[in-house]
């Protein structure tokens, strides 16, 4: 082989080795890039896999007919199946639903240690916390809830007509705060006696003349109006006196399951977006779950009352005003900071 041929062969060998080196570097760079791209996804999946909830979740809520379906966005998610299916991914195997006629009864169940989560009115939830109930606030499930002060058609027509008469509502409820505040504003708190009656017993008391008026919650109020009774006032005329529905979790459950509030609120947000996109379907669902006629349900609510965000600023302000009133009136045993109660 000539000296020229050897020189050309050496050059070709060097070029071949250099090309192989470049290819190897490229492969290494590609693999490193792929690893960096997939790592966060794997980490996220790993984090989700580490969330382990107790096998049983005990949920309490207010129901007029003892139906085990929750009448709100959470109930929508429940009826669609994903409230349970999503939480089952984190270890929940059994869901226990408990219904209560009013908030104080639900508070008693929390005190007894038989609930993990409670969905109920702002007044009993706040009163419970002020009395030492070990709960934390997860969300404001519903805001601006109306209440109706209902009387017979041939009964009192105005608030002043209630002077020296008896009225009633469910003690410790958001309607009781509305009624108490309303009478105080009108200077009637000393001359009108408030009795404790559950909503289901109100109509009979009105018909017998035992009471002059009853402060009804959503559902019951419009239902009585449909029957021919009249509303001499309603909370919607006094926005600050409207109620809210709150979701609380026990401190014990939260301490052991700190990821639960986000899981719950994400499911609720998904449900709220769906019901806002399909209000007619939601009204139908609510009517079936509550037992009220659909027109009564529509008269009771506006779809916007179920906020997409877990803690809307407007709702937070409303429950803070509720708390201040309850403390000032001596109805709440002890003052506390709403922000410290709230899970963040």
Automatic annotation (TrEMBL):
Pfam families: NMT1 (PF09084). Residues 102-280 form the SsuA/THI5-like domain. Residues 1-23 form the signal peptide. InterPro entries: SsuA/THI5. Keywords: Signal. SUPFAM superfamilies: Periplasmic binding protein-like II. This is Aliphatic sulfonate ABC transporter substrate-binding protein. It comes from Paenibacillus ferrarius.
């Amino acid at each position: 082989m000539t000296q020229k041929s050897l020189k050309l062969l050496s050059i070709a060998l060097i070029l071949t080795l250099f090309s192989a080196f470049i290819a190897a570097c490229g492969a290494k760079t590609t693999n490193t890039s792929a690893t960096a791209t997939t790592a966060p996804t794997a980490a996220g999946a790993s984090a989700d896999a580490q969330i382990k909830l107790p096998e049983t979740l005990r949920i309490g809520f207010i129901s007029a007919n003892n139906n085990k379906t929750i009448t709100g966005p959470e109930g929508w998610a429940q009826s669609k199946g994903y409230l349970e299916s999503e939480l089952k991914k984190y270890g929940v195997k059994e869901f226990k639903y408990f219904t209560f006629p009013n908030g104080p009864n639900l508070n008693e169940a929390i005190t007894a240690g038989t609930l993990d989560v409670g969905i109920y009115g702002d007044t009993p939830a706040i009163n419970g916390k002020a009395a030492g109930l070990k709960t934390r606030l997860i969300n404001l499930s519903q805001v601006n809830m109306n209440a109706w002060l209902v009387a017979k058609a041939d009964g009192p027509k105005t608030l002043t007509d209630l002077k020296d008469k008896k009225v009633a509502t469910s003690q410790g409820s958001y309607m009781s705060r509305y009624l108490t505040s309303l009478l105080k504003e009108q200077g009637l708190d000393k001359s009108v006696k408030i009795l404790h009656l559950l909503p289901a017993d109100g109509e009979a008391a009105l018909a017998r003349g035992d009471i002059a008026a009853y402060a009804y919650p959503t559902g019951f109020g419009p239902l009585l109006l449909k029957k021919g009774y009249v509303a001499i006032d309603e909370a919607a005329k006094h926005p600050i006196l409207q109620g809210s529905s709150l979701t609380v979790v026990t401190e014990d459950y939260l301490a052991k399951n700190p990821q639960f509030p986000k899981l719950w609120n994400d499911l609720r947000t998904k449900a709220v977006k769906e019901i806002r996109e399909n209000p007619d379907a939601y009204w139908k669902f609510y009517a079936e779950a509550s037992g009220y006629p659909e027109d009564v349900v529509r008269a009771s609510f506006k779809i916007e009352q179920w906020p997409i965000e877990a803690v809307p600023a407007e709702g937070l302000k409303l429950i803070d005003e509720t708390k201040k009133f309850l403390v000032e009136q001596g109805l709440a045993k002890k003052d506390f900071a709403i922000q410290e109660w709230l899970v963040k």
